[in-house]
Amino acid sequence: MSTDPKLENYLATLDKCLSGLKVSDRADIITEMKSHALDSQERHPEKNMQSILAALGEPESVANRFLIERGLKPGKPARTPIVKWLTIGFLGTMALTFLFSLLVIWKFSPIISVNDSGVRILGGAITIEGAEFTNSEGASLKFNSSEIEGSQDIDPKSTKMVKVEFNSGKIDFGYSDDSEMSWSCKGQGASPVLSAAKDGLVVLDLSMLAMAKCDIELPNLPVEIKGLNGKIHVDEPQNALSVAINNGVITISPDDELQYGYELNVSNGKVIGDFKSSKGPKAIAIKARVFNGNIERQ
Amino acid sequence: MAGDLENWKTQIRKGYLELCILLLVQKHKRIYGLDLLEKLSAFDLVLKEGTLYPLLSRMTVDKILSATWETENVKGHPRKYYFLTKDGLAHLLTMKHEFKTMVKVFEQLID
């Protein structure tokens, strides 16, 4: 006589959940449950096997009752396969994301670094060398850079401040002995524009010049330098100075005969070298700010 | 509060049902699970199959009950018949005595 497969399944699960008991006890329970199910079906032919087994309860919980009644620890509720696979999938995704993040951080760090030969962005994915673009595959794009020179005498009486603005490049600043301001640039784009703004402000705008590589002589006046990316060097500042760039390096070579009051600010990076700040009345105020990069003493 | 009442019912029924089961076994001399369930429900003592069999199993382990497998006819399947052991009978007598005392106290208290 063949038994209902539903009943067989039920008994198989029950048997598995009773594994804490002796084999003979287990066999006794299974036989009794089978006998009960068959008896019930005989007595109530209108009921199907599914409803008879439903009345008996889930095989796991019935097995637990048998175990609890005997003072044994009930088994853990069986994990359904879907939960198992979801867990594996979730953990796997987490692990892959983590590894991928590590790879990205490793491959593309540092975000930006600047040395004498140029600027490296995203660990070398983009390299700017003067007026040369190179990517990590070695392909390079060279600009036909033109040399642009200019100079102008700045009236120290009517001028309160000199402002230099640029987008990207490597710019060396020095100070002239007189009131002349001069510049010598290599780069691609429009020539620098020197203009006198209101309130005694003179502005040298290099922002139209891409990858500017300049040497600039400043007059002995307060100077403000503002740029986005690159390397700024200021040699022996003679007057109040304010330098700010987003990404790159600012290097300052102080004049040994002068006293300075430094205000240095780096968001992601370091201040390298010993900047001796003086609070004396003769101290020249030097303000420098870099978001990503360094401020160094040379 | 309804939950608390259900819990109280479960607690008080547990011992009471055990007593009733043993009384029915004693009355019928020998009885099998499904038959016992139907006798119980005839007295409005509703018990789930999944609760009765583990209870019978435990009372067998405790040697209050004993069981034999019997097949009534050639076509039929074997049934497990339960009967009281000597120890079980003594156990039941004590239970009956205890319960009578409890009922007596209860009746005095509700009067």
Description:
The complex is a heterodimer of chains A (298) and B (111). Chain A has 298 residues and is an alpha/beta fold. Chain A folds into 2 domains: 5-69, no CATH class; 146-297, no CATH class. Chain A has helices at 5-17, 23-43, 49-56, 59-69, 81-107; strands at residues 112-115, 118-121, 126-129, 132-135, 140-142, 146-153, 161-165, 168-175, 180-189, 193-196, 201-205, 209-218, 223-235, 241-253, 260-272, 284-297. In chain A, strands 6, 7, 8, 9, 10, 11, 12, 13, 14, 15 and 16 form an 11-stranded mixed sheet that branches. A 5-stranded antiparallel sheet of chain A has the order 1-2-3-4-5, with no helix packed on it. The longest helix of chain A is centred in the first third of the chain and has 27 residues, at 81-107. The model of chain A is unreliable at 140-144 (pLDDT under 50). Chain B is an alpha+beta fold. Chain B has a single domain (2-110), classed as Arc Repressor Mutant, subunit A (Orthogonal Bundle), CATH 1.10.10. Chain B is 68% helix and 13% strand. A 3-stranded antiparallel sheet of chain B has the order 1-3-2. Chain B is globular, with a radius of gyration of 16 Å. The two termini of chain B are 26 Å apart. The model of chain B has no long low-confidence stretch (mean pLDDT 90). The interface between A and B is medium-sized, with 22 and 18 residues.
Order of helices and strands of chain A: HHHHHEEEEEEEEEEEEEEEE
Overall strand count of chain B: 3
Give the averaged pLDDT of chain A, no decimals. Answer: 83
Strand content of chain B: 5-15%
How big is the Rg of chain B? 16 Å
Number of domains of chain A: 2
**Span from first to last CA of chain A?**
98 Å
Give helix % range of chain B: 55-70%
Global structural class of chain B? alpha+beta
Number of helical elements of chain A? 5
User: Cα-atom Rg of chain A, whole angstroms?
Assistant: 40 Å
- CATH class of chain B equals Mainly Alpha
CATH topology of chain B: the name is Arc Repressor Mutant, subunit A
* H/E element order of chain B: HEHHEEH
CATH architecture of chain B: Orthogonal Bundle
User: How many E-type strands of chain A?
Assistant: 16
Q: Oligomer, anyone?
A: heterodimer
Structural class call of chain A reads alpha/beta
Q: Could you tell me which chain pair has the largest interface and how many residues each side has? A: A-B, 22 and 18 residues
**Which blocks of ≥5 consecutive residues of chain B have pLDDT under 50?**
none
Query: Major beta sheet of chain B, specifics?
Result: 3 strands, antiparallel
